[in-house]
Sequence to fold (594 residues):
Amino acid sequence: MLTLVAVATICTSLHLLYTESGTLHQRRAGIQPPNPVAAYVSALDAVRPMLPNDATVTFINRQADQHPMFYLTAAQYALAPTLLDTTARHAWMLVNGKGAPPIPSATPEEPWALVAAINDSVRVYQRRALP
Amino acid sequence: MMGWLAAALLWPLGIGWVVSRWAFRPVRHRVSPLLVLAFAVGTGLGIASLSFFLILALTGDAGPVVVWTETIVGCVVLGLAFYYRRVMPPRQPRAQTIPPPVAFSGSMAVLVGVLGVTAINLVLLSLNAPHGGWDAWASWNLKARFLFMGSPIWERAFSPIIAWSSVDYPLLLPANVARLWTYVGAEHPAAPSLLAALFTGATLLLLVAALHTLRGRWHAVMGGLLLAGTPYFIRHGAAQYADAPFAFYLLAAVTLYLLHDHLRPEKPTGLWALAGLSAGLAMWTKNEGLLLVLALVLARGLVLVFQQPGRGAWLREGRVFLWGWVPVFLVWCYFKMQVAGPSTLLTSQAAPQAVAQVLDPSRTVQMGSYVLSLFLRPDALTAYLLMLCMGILGLRRGFWKEPGLQTGLLVLTMMLTGYFLVMAMSSADLLWQLRTATSRLFFQLWPTVLLLALLMLKRPAWD
Fold:
C-alpha cells in the first residue's frame, strides 16, 4: 500500500516539477512573456487620451516600473475588460504611495477623487472601445 | 535582502519556540523536537503579526519602531530565560529524557526525497508567479502594501470603496508580509513567497510529526506522502493565500487535543492553552476562524459532557484554553470594531431571503453536484488512495471511543456544515462562488482530514 502511494506521490511531484520548470525555462527563454507588462502598457496607453491629467499617467508609469505587482494587477484587469475600472483603484494606490509627488486631485481630504476621475474616464473608454 | 528576511524571521521563530516548548514542557521527552518546531513556526508568525498590528495601531509607524520594539522585547525575553535557568535549581532527571529517535528506513528516505522535490516545486511556483494568485495581489498583498506605508495611509485599506478586497478580513497574513517588508525596506515579492512556503512546510511537518507521535512511522510516512502528493495543496500553498495559514492552525488545534489525550497521564495542560492560541490565530487569519472556535468549543463540550470526564473536565479545559485564546480575541475585537470595513457577507443579505436560500433544494443539488465533480479532477487522486487504504487495511476497532478523535471528527463536520450554510446564504452568484471558493475550503480541511483518517486506520501487520 505504502509503495503504491509512494509511486503515485513521486509521479505527481515529478509531473509538477516538470511543468513548472518548463514554464520557468520558457519564460527565461522568452517563449512566454515574463509577466504581462505589454498588456498593461497597451491598456494604459489606450486609456491615456481619456485620462484627466497626462502627468498622472506618466507618474503611474514611472511608479509601475518600481512596483511589478501593479503591472500584473493592471494587466490582469486589462485582460478582463469588464473589470478594467478596478485598475484605476490600483492606480490610486500608486499615486498615494510613499514619496508621491503632489497631485491636486489626490489630496488627503479627498483621497478618492482621483479614483473617481480615472474611473469615469475608463468607463468612457470602455464604452467606445468595446462592442 | 535575504539576510534581512532571515533576521526578520528570527524573532517569530524564537518566540514561537519559547511558547511551544513551554506548552509541551511536561511531555517534552515524549515528543520529537520536529513536532515542537512545527508548532513554533505557526505560533511565532501569528504572534509576530499581532505585535506588528498593535505597534502600527498605537504608533502609526511601520518602520523602525517595529524593529526596535521587537529587538528590545527579544533581548528582555532572552535575558529572562537566561536568568530563569541560572536561578532555578536543575530539575530531577526523568527516567527517559531523550525523545524516541526517528528510525531512518527506506520509507523515510522516500518521504525525505518527496519533501525535497516539494520544496523545489514551491520555489519554482513562486518564481513563476512571484505575486501569487489573484486573491494574493488583489486582497492579501494589497492590504500588506497599505500597512507597509504606515500612517495615515494604512487605514484606507479598509475603505468600503475597495470592498471587493474583503475589507473585513483579519490581518495575520498581510501584517506578516508588511512586517517582512519593513525589515527589508521594500515591497519585495520574496517576502509573501517565503511566508507561503513556511506555512505549507510547517503544515507538512506538523502532520508527519503528529502522526509519528500518535501512531508510528508507517502512518507518518503515509500522511506525508498523501499530503505532498496532492498537487492542489502544493500549488495553492505557493499562491500566497491565507488558506495555507488557516489550514495550519486548524490542523494544529485538532492535533493538540489529540496529543493531550494521547499524553494524558502526564497532564500536559499547556497544550490546551496552545490549542486556544491556535484557534485564536485561525480567527486572526480568516473569518472562518470564528466558526472553528465555535466548533472546537462545542465539539469538545459534547465529547466530554456525555462521557466519563464530565462537565468539570470541560470547564477545566476551557479555562486553560482561554489563556491562549483571549489575548488574540482582544486584538481581533479591536480590529473588528475600530479598523475593519463592513462585511459584505453579513450586510448584503436580508435574513428571510438567506433562510429561503438555505431551504432551496435546487441550491443544495447544485452545490452537491459541484462538490462531486471535484472528485473527477486529477487532484482527487490522493483522496482515492486514502479510500483505498481504508478499504484494504480497515478501521481500527474502538477508534470512535477516543475523545480526541471524536473532537476532531465533530469539528470537521461542523466546519463543513458551516461552509455549506454560509455558501447557501450568500447573495453572490452561487456558481461563481462554487468555482472560486470550494477548492480553497477543501484545501483548508484536507490536512486535518488526512490526520483523522489515518488515525482511524489499522496499523499494518508489517509495520
Chain A touches chain B through 36 residues (CB under 8 Å). Chain A is about 70% helix and 0% strand. Residues 34-45, 47-59, 63-89, 94-119 of chain A have pLDDT under 50 and may be disordered.
